[in-house]
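Course assignment 3, question 2. Fill in each field.
Student: A.L.
Task: Predict the tertiary structure for the chain below.
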Amino acid sequence: MGTGKSLSTPKGGKWSNTKRIITGKLRGTFDVSSSNIVGATVDAGGGVGIGGTPNQIGLVIGSIGAFADKVAESGFEQSLAFLGLQELEGLSAVEVTAAIAERLTSSLDDLNGDLMRDAVREAVLEAAQLGDEDGLEHLERGVDSFFEKEGVIEFVSLVLEKYVFNAIWSCIEDHVQSRSQSVEDFEAFLNAVQSVCESEVRKTLRDLKDRGQLDSIDWFGPRGERIGKTIFSSLEQQLMIGIEG
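Answer field:
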């Protein structure tokens, strides 16, 4: 199990220490937390993004928020029109979500764009609680139901939880796999990292909400871009706290 887009774990610099503590964790020679490993990975990579700058990723978060806001306000069908994707009748849920993800992440290239597109696709399908064979009408009902119960920030959180895990895991999966003594060890390590990523995303958004920074957001235009950048910058800082944990 993995992202499907793992890299050869980088060498040198801070990556040497990151790989050292991963190996120690897997072999039981280091008492190190999963939060520490996540923080060390972010620190070694100079941030969460792979090939995309924080500003580029913040811009995409703003676009995701605008899409989510349109769904919450007008429904899934109107949100497709907002993206210029009206003519999708007859396509599967997977094909529709792929089109949505492609449109929302068009400003990101290379691996970073692939990871964010995967995150958007996974989040839409999970929000709608659908399988690969479901069609557009099932997707519409499922997404609308999610937004009626949850909301815009919850969807943004869902995307970011998946993106952050995808980005971090793709950097260390190769090393974890090579040092794991069993499939069970590998999967336990993966699940622990995923849990930290999800928890830190939720904490970041909760803290921003408590400070009033997510109140009455206008996701469209420059203000949406700014809040997207604020969210991502705050998230990277939160993940780095784990280095000291």
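Instructor remarks: The chain has two domains: 34-44+155-244, 54-150. The mean pLDDT is 90.
Grade: pending
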